[in-house]
Amino acid sequence: PSARAPLEIAGLEAWYGPSQALYGVALSVGAGELVTLLGRNGAGKTTTLNAIVGMVPRRKGSIRIEGIETGAMPSHKIARTGVAICPEDRGIYATLTAEENLVLPPVVAEGGLSVDEILVLFPGLKDRLKSPGTKLSGGEQQMLAIGRILRTGARLLLLDEPTEGLAPVVVKQIGAAIADLKRRGYTILMVEQNVRFASTIADRHYVVDRGRIAETFDNATLLADFDRISGRLSA
Ligand code: ATP
Fold first, then answer.
1. Ligand 1: which residue has its CA nearest to atom 25?
2. By alpha-carbon position, which residue is closest to atom 16 of ligand 1?
3. d(CA 161, CA 36)
4. Is the pTM of this model over 0.90?
5. pLDDT beneath 50, residues of the chain
6. How far apart are CA 232 and CA 131, in angstroms?
7. Which residue ranges does the record assign to the ABC transporter domain (predicted)?
8. End-to-end CA distance of the chain
9. Whole-angstrom Cα distance, residue 146 to residue 123?
10. Where does residue 17 rank: exposed (0-12), middle (13-18), buried (19+ CB within 10 A)?
């Protein structure tokens, strides 16, 4: 990848207090690519996403977003480089309506989507705009959480386990929306425990294990060797 790849990470380390969570993570995501971080619980996938947006207590190493070194920037400055994260807990405010949740993030880069444009991607939210966050289903909350970050104008999207806890039919809807985002040219780095789901939409994968990148392969390799690779990831 060139110096202006949407994301290039090298030698990334991260700590929670005295305990180290990442040990020299290196990865890159090219323009328009959809790349996943696979791996067991506690491997360091969420920490990797959080480190990219400056939301871990301490980190070290190089993180380049569109060629800009952000490894030592505070998170509000990182946001202005055009990256946004959809966190694992979805971060929906229970007392706000869906619409209020949707317009919460500030526009930080050109090309931020309007509410109407977000509803084109997530038509299921249209009838739910006035509902409070708590009344939304898990799938609706996930759509809202992803839709919301599109408002910022970020072109690099970090999605943390978007399918977690969702029924298969809802996983399909979320998958279709993420594939749509890819078609629209967004670059996506996604944490995913569901290897089957990952294999239906991603271009490439990294396996995170004990704070390190253990392995990387393209999606064709995953599909060709699915049982062995997915078996190892869940063993
Ligand atoms: P999961 O799917 O369970 O979130 P993960 O691969 O995303 O797994 P991380 O959440 O990044 O893993 O966790 C990596 C390591 O850092 C684990 O050992 C975890 O216990 C530790 N860790 C994560 N968050 C914190 C925190 N807030 N405080 C202390 N340790 C943490």
1. 16
2. 21
3. 10
4. yes
5. 1
6. 42
7. 7-235
8. 33
9. 13
10. exposed
